[in-house]
Amino acid sequence: MKCPFCSFYDSKVIDSRPASEGTSIRRRRECLECKKRFTTYEIVERTPLVIIKRDGTRQAFDKSKIIKGMLTACEKRPISMAQLEIIADDIEQELRGMVESEVKSDKVGELIMARLRDLDEVAYVRFVSVYRSFSDVETFMDELNKMVQSKG
Q1: What is the number of alpha carbons within 13 Å of residue 106 lying toward its C-beta?
Q2: Cα–Cα distance between 49 and 64 in angstroms, integer?
């Protein structure tokens, strides 16, 4: 590690401890040349997660898009922003835990639907109606009937 004071290329670690809730390591270092101390942080480098859209285009994963879609579905429902953020974090963690670094958007949609179904039925139906873009009332009713039958 290059010293930020004298640019010498060697330093020793004096102290290490977890930082940012265990997602990084904070290291106190001392330059072997000028003896000044400085702090460095070590974090895990994540491979980019790419979403393959229905039209075949690819784009970087964006957790805010998941939250935005759920916010729309949960409008005027008793669901907190913290709950939606937890769901989005869980989905991101599940996607990153997969072997592939490219995931079809359908998979993301299915994960969102599963979580909303457990959280709030109305939000679930709203999300499904947009996500699956029902072409008629009968298709929409079929989905509602499936939901009702699975509960009973």
Answers
A1: 4
A2: 14
Express each pLDDT in 120-132 by its tens digit: 999 998 898 888 7
Closest CA to 97 of 147, 60, 46: 46
Task: Supply the angle between the helices 105-119 and 63-73 in degrees, to the nearest 10.
Answer: 40
Give the whole-angstrom CA distance, residue 85 versus residue 71.
10
Domain boundaries defined on the chain: 11-43, 50-151
Nearest partner of 87 among 62, 70, 107, 72, judged by Cα: 70
Chain segment 51-89, per-residue pLDDT in tens: 999 999 999 999 999 999 999 999 999 999 999 999 999
Q: Tell whether pTM > 0.85.
A: no
Distance of alpha carbon 121 from alpha carbon 147, whole angstroms: 9
Backbone φ/ψ region at 73: left (φ over 0), alpha (ψ -120 to 50), beta: alpha
